[in-house]
Design brief:
Blueprint (H helix, E strand, L loop, with lengths): L4 E3 L2 H9 L4 E7 L2 E6 L2 H12 L7 H17 L1
Antiparallel strand pairs: 1-3, 2-3
Length: 76
Amino acid sequence: MDNHYRTKDLSEGSVLLVKQQKLLSIDREGKTCWFIFEDKKSCEQIANQFWFGSCLVNAKSYFEAIQTLKNRIFSQ
């Protein structure tokens, strides 16, 4: 799991999906869902761009990624 990236933030996870990062799993810890992605280094770079406001994505793709993650959470 050294090369995996974990986030519990739905918005951040959605950006990672839009940026073509591979979602490996969604792990639950109580009421918290962790999104586990494959490439830690790439995910960290994208996450930093997201949090500092320099990550540009297509709005429709971002909305669809949010819906995808929500569907995955509530279907489990």
